[in-house]
Amino acid sequence: MYIRRQLPIPIEYGHIVRARQNIGSKIFRTPVAKSTNLTSLAGHDVYLKLENYQLTGSFKIRGATHAIGNLSQLHRTNGVVGLSTGNHGRGLAYAARQAGVKCTICMSRLVPLNKIEAIKQLDAKVLIHGDSQDEAYEKVVELVREKKMYFIPPFDDFDIITGQGTIGIEIMEQVPDVKVVVVPVSGGGLISGIAAAIKHRKPNVRIIGVSMERGAAMHESLKAGHPIEVEELTTLADSLGGGIGLTNRYTFNIVQNLVEEVVVVPERKIADAINYAYWCEGQIVEGGGAVGIASTLTGKTMPDGPMVILLSGANIDIDRHYKIISKDYGN
Ligand SMILES: *Cc1c(COP(=O)(O)O)cnc(C)c1O
């Protein structure tokens, strides 16, 4: 299937246990809920891991809190800088405020006002620079060089991956006989951490990634055998957009070695999954958080034993959510 280069995995189970000690009291240990509907459909127990209930509405707070907890005294004083306008930006701003560390989020002129407001409400400073994410990144580089601030990237980072990996420890505690874990994938920090945690203890558990068809960078890179760029397209799973970085350090290697497969789902099935999560499970889930349900409803992740589907976030525009649950998304 995939070409797999066997490289050592630099993340050990102990690193993730340490991350949990660092962040355990600062985040929620989110519940798992057994889904009777999906259990009937799949023929095996299916559980939903509810990170849509996490502080800031997504799991991103885990890695961000761990990275901030590990800052040097110099960087605690000078502050941290981020580039994301989405869930990572929110998680980072919240974690920084909790730790009393200054936080600056750089963004381009094209970012909508409501996203800027959401970050400002968490007391982070917003710096607008340029007309693209790449130009905004120039500002990040400048702050790191001139103000000696610390850049916290969204996924390809040791602390971020081990922080997200704490979900893997929780899953093993909450569903000890788990056989399959289904995880949304974008840059791959989330699935890398979870796979590292679980495969170290239970190597026979299958870890399946899910992305949207439109612009699935990790999926395409796995097929190519090395990180490649894909065109970024608008998708209902907006938190899964973006590349994995051509100079990817950690996540591509970890996914290549520890993840069985990354499957993709079409837009309409993501909408169906958001709709299903609401009406059949009572859950509000954003597009990126619903792809695991979408892949299960379409038979792409059929389990051979107890399965856990990660619902990774809740942050969907509420008007859009209303349209989807009213089945008003056909045109
Ligand atoms: C960031 C994010 C993902 C993907 O995480 P990666 O570490 O980039 O793969 C999935 N779901 C939600 C809700 C996210 O915010």
Features of the shown structure:
45% helix, alpha/beta, globular, 331 residues, binds pyridoxal-5'-phosphate
Structural account:
With 331 residues, the chain is α/β, with parallel strands linked by helices. The chain is 45% helix and 13% strand. A 6-stranded mixed sheet has the order 1-2-10-7-8-9, sandwiched between helices. A 4-stranded parallel sheet has the order 5-4-3-6, sandwiched between helices. The mean pLDDT is 94. β7 (180-184), α9 and β8 (206-212) form a beta-alpha-beta unit. α8 packs across α9 and α12 (267-281) crosses α13 (287-297). It has helices at 13-23, 36-42, 60-69, 73-78, 87-99, 113-120, 133-146, 158-174, 189-201, 217-224, 251-258, 267-281, 287-297, 318-325; strands at residues 32-34, 46-50, 80-82, 103-107, 125-128, 150-151, 180-184, 206-212, 261-265, 307-311. Bound molecules: pyridoxal-5'-phosphate. Pyridoxal-5'-phosphate (PLP) is lined by residues 58, 60, 87, 155, 184-191, 239-240, 286, 288-289, 312-313.
Quick description:
The chain has 331 residues and is of the alpha/beta class. The chain has helices at residues 13-23, 36-42, 60-69, 73-78, 87-99, 113-120, 133-146, 158-174, 189-201, 217-224, 251-258, 267-281, 287-297, 318-325, and strands at 32-34, 46-50, 80-82, 103-107, 125-128, 150-151, 180-184, 206-212, 261-265, 307-311. The radius of gyration is 19 Å and the shape is globular.
